Amino acid sequence: MQFDLRRFIASGRARQEQTFDCDLTGRDFAGSRIEAPVAARFAAEADGDEVRMTLRASASVHGECARCLDPVQLEVQVDAGWTARERDLDDPDFELPVNEAGCIDLDDWLYQEFLFQVPTVLLCSADCPGLCPQCGRKRPCSCPAAPEQSAQPDARLSVLKSLLN
Ligand SMILES: [Zn+2]
Ligand SMILES: [Zn+2]
Hints:
Layout: E1 2-4, H1 5-10, E2 16-22, E3 33-34, E4 38-47, E5 50-64, E6 71-84, E7 103-105, H2 106-117, H3 155-164
The site of one zinc ion has 7 residues, from loops.
């Protein structure tokens, strides 16, 4: 959805609020996905020569555990606020996605906000033991434990022994 910020500023700035469905199903969130359209709420209101905008939404994010590759689902919230002035529309460094006509692309803005919120590393649980390097299954598996390192003779101990002799 587009929000015509230039017209909003020119038109006397009555508070505006709307909900819209945003389809982010084709977008990538560091390997995770949002698989259903998101109901988002957008509001804009004037405050002096500034326009305050808010964008809110929540979505189920689907990804996989970085250790065991099991599917992981989590709820992610976006609650973003932004203040803009008319001159921002001509500023090349303005951080919201705006076109030459002064319209903000709310879908792109929402995508940016979700991208900030979705963790780049998902875990099925904080202490996920991950996959066994021997059989490739999720731990604990039935593989014998890896040989103990202490089975190797310790060089420092043998030096000590030779001193004692
Ligand atoms: Zn896991
Ligand atoms: Zn194993």
